[in-house]
Design goal:
Helix content is about 55%, strand content about 0%. By secondary structure, it is mainly alpha-helical. Helix 1 crosses helix 3.
């Protein structure tokens, strides 16, 4: 059960270009990403999915969108870092490439 709206690749690239323009002007930018275009935990719970599972699916959707924005920005040369509030050790293991890039940039 996905939400009705979904960001296209073109929309993602357009947003990345706008962010890049601001960054290149010397302004530090923080982007807060959600996952409602993929899953909404509350809507899934209302449809009968166990609430905890529904919430985790919504959180994963948020991480998926954050990775998509990160990839779009780094593709055009904008350094990024994704932070998340939750501590999902297994999830971190699924996307180690960005951690390695940060270590390489730090001279490790």
């Amino acid at each position: 059960m996905a939400a009705t709206a979904s960001a296209s690749t073109q929309d993602l690239q357009a947003v990345a270009e706008e962010i890049a323009e601001v960054v290149r002007a010397g302004i530090e930018v923080c982007v807060v990403v959600g996952g409602g275009n993929i899953f909404r935990g509350a809507a899934l719970a209302e449809a009968g999915l166990e609430r905890t599972s529904a919430d985790y699916m919504g959180m994963l959707a948020t991480v998926m969108n954050a990775i998509a924005v990160q990839a779009a920005l780094e593709k055009i040369g904008v350094f990024t870092r994704v932070h998340r509030r939750s501590r999902w050790r297994r999830l971190r293991a699924l996307h180690p490439a960005s951690r390695l890039r940060h270590l390489e940039r730090a001279g490790w």
